[in-house]
Amino acid sequence: IEYHKELAYFFDLYELKSLGSIEEKPGVPPSARRLAEVSLAAKAAGVRLGIGAHYHPDSHLQKFSELSGIPYIKVPMMVQKDFDSIEK
Questions:
Q1: What is the pLDDT of residues 15-73, one digit of tens each?
Q2: Cα 63 to Cα 35: distance, rounded to the nearest angstrom
């Protein structure tokens, strides 16, 4: 399960299935009710991991993990070369 629907290409590339997103609407933080519903659904469906971007709120991901028993990780959505460290 993902926090925000933004990993579709990643899931397709690695043939992974997602239960959906923790956010009900993009950009709108999930309510307590939404977190509880998604957590129970994820647990019942056998979801193994929650994924969020490094900028998503830890509090929502932690609450999801507490309610579902499913661990989560935060990953970068973009990487950028540090051009200042390149030798000239």
A1: 999 999 999 998 899 999 999 999 999 999 999 999 999 999 899 999 999 999 999 99
A2: 7
